[in-house]
Amino acid sequence: MAGVERTFTRALELILSPLRVLLVEDSEDDALLLLLQLKRSGQQVQHMRVDTADAMRTALQQQWDVVISDFTMPRFSGEAALEIFREVGLVCPFIIVTGTIGEESAVALMKKGVSDFVLKTNLPRLPGVVERELRESQLRREKRSAEEALRISEERYKLAMQAANDGLWDWNIRDHFVYYSPRWKAMIGYGEDEISSSPNEWYDRLHPDEREQFRARLITYFKRLTPLFELEHRVKIKDGSYRWMLTRGLALYDENGRAYRMAGSQTDVTERKRTEEQLLHDAFHDGLTGLPNRALFTDLLGFSLEHRQRNASYLSAVLFINLERFRFVNDSFGHRIGDQYLIEVAERLRAILRPGDAAARFAGDEFAILMDDVREPSEVTRFAETLQSVIAKPLGLGGHEFFPGCCIGIVFNSTDYRAPEDMLRDADTAMHRAKKKGVTKFEVFNRDMHASAVTTLQLEHDLRRATERREFILYYQPIVDLRCGRLASFEALIRWMHPSGRMVSPIEFIPLAEELGLINQIGRQVLEMACRQIVEWQQRQPGYAPIPVSVNLSGKQLGQPGLVEEIEQIIAETGLNAPSLKLEITETMLMENPEIASEILSRLRAKNIKVLMDDFGTGYSSLSYLHRFPSDTLKIDGSFVSRMTESRDGREIVRTIILLAHNLGMTVIAECVETEEHVALLREYGCDYAQGYYFGKPLPADLTAELIQSNPTWD
């Protein structure tokens, strides 16, 4: 049982930690072939390549799991590398890869410390040889630590014979006679009298793929190049199936050094092998859908890129897929429905894959497809269209019908790509571009996208620092009383003075701030700056009535717990008279969560803080909702004001909004007022206030102060 646990632990270590390989090889291409063989076995590899004695001595100062050396090199040799290896005293397997080598030379080198040889014509053997030698190296270390002077003797054989769970065998080599214990026979499904004493009863039942390995391992042991015979192999049992067995044995030698007797045990390790295989499968596959996971997909993509480096005409593509509105499904109907949703999508992906292609689930609602050996780019775009139509088919789950959709980013391989992660990054970038466009629903990556992504990433970094350093400033746009033509209030508008000297528009950075979770922090800074500025203006002109300033709240702020308390705290800290602060909230934000919004507005009005409904008409455009929200002022969106001079319908919409707002006890501000005609019509309809370039552009605080002092009027 301890051996099974050790082996299981070793398998887990191989999965979780990379295999450290020192390659003694002068050819990069040959080194790449060796690494490919190791990676195809599921092993993560960390490697270094050297081709000189000095470089090898330097490399051996580090710890390595295995050293793999070419036998013949122009400036170096495998034999010379072995001497340095022995000189340093590193304890790990030393494997030679060679085109050909004589038996005498091989025996001589193995006596000096070579663990095994792999012919270049049979490189697929390499992963198995490495795994075996790592186990044997570990076994030798365990044996030396347990008892360095231990000699294999008859006592070991007697102890093996007492192992009740193992099948035992005793081979008389000279007479070609083998004793098979009853347990040995039972393990392969036979009774006591159904198996003869012939060695062929054993050898003929070996799996054909492992007979040569069994023979070679036996010869190596008889030449005393290994301390014991040990091999995991498959054995055909009575019903025709195969089971995995671990065979161990020790031999006795005559005065001429020839083995004349060998005995050992046979252990059924089928279940452990299945556990290892399952462990390896789970490490590289998604537990929900059974698709390959990101790790395995990345490895497959890496092989594809290596193929591209060797063959410039080879074309492949990655499709990065993001499901639309999956979060809504998961949040609204529960994880059970959400999981079934993902499983069905995975099955649809499997159904349309071409032979040789691979699909993977990365995380959540993200999938990827590797299309290998593509004839032309149009083949990929046609596949993307098919994929979207297949995914979009109605999906019935739990008595509900869903209509899945997806956005796809496509990237083609090129010799510029060296790492799979770079290709996946660009595919993800293209997917986000498709998501923003929302028309074609798939986008093919180009270099401009990468440049844009880099710019956005830099902007994210700069925005975080700007928030920490409080780099934001406020501009103020006048709001004019149309009844008397005098200044009534201001709207505070945020600007970002970038360290480069560029003034960054809020259109550019506010959505990014919301995405990064910075908007609440920025919103608090804006409120603090606006309140302090109002107080400063009042202190400069104590004889004048205070001029209110309105500040915009984002949707994220409106949903922030403790918003009202935070506003109260800012007002108290700055010493502001509460009626001097007005808060602007868009119609769309109010309708996203009307119950919470209505409660917050009521609490703000109770604190004597006025509330303005901004951009009215652009959201739900329903006048019937107005009475639900206790606001003081309604701001007509500028798009309606602009259309007043274009059509009678445009004028009637504005007139109707003003009339209804007045009937509900609300004052009205018209936005984007730019012409005398706008002003005239708004006065005719009884609009209370107006804001726009006709009256003035947003100004910094110092120029706004001068405007206040000038006490302007507009006819």
Poorly predicted ranges: 1-5
Largest sheet: 8 strands, mixed, barrel
Q: Beta-sheet strand percentage?
A: 15-25%
In total, how many beta strands? 26
Class inferred from helices and paired strands: alpha/beta
Count the DSSP helices.
27
Rg calculated over all Cα atoms: 39 Å
Name the helicity range. Answer: 40-55%
Q: Provide the residue-averaged pLDDT.
A: 85
| End-to-end C-alpha gap | 97 Å
**Shape call:** elongated
Strand order of the largest sheet: 18-19-21-22-23-24-25-26
Describe this structure in words.
- The radius of gyration is 39 Å and the shape is elongated.
- The chain has 715 residues and is α/β, with parallel strands linked by helices.
- The N and C termini lie far apart (97 Å).
- Helix 1 runs parallel beside helix 11 (270-283), helix 13 (326-333) runs antiparallel to helix 14 and helix 19 (519-540) packs parallel to helix 21.
- The strands form five sheets. It has an eight-stranded mixed beta barrel with strand order 18-19-21-22-23-24-25-26, surrounded by four helices. It has a five-stranded parallel sheet with strand order 2-1-3-4-5, with helices on both faces. It has a five-stranded antiparallel sheet with strand order 7-6-10-9-8, with helices on both faces.
- Helices cover 46% and strands 21% of the residues.
- It contains 27 helices and 26 strands.
Descriptive labels:
715 residues, alpha/beta, eight-stranded mixed β-barrel, five-stranded parallel β-sheet, 27 helices, 26 strands
What's the gist of this structure?
The chain is of the alpha/beta class and 715 residues long. The longest helix has 23 residues, at 447-469. Mean pLDDT is 85; it is low at 1-5.
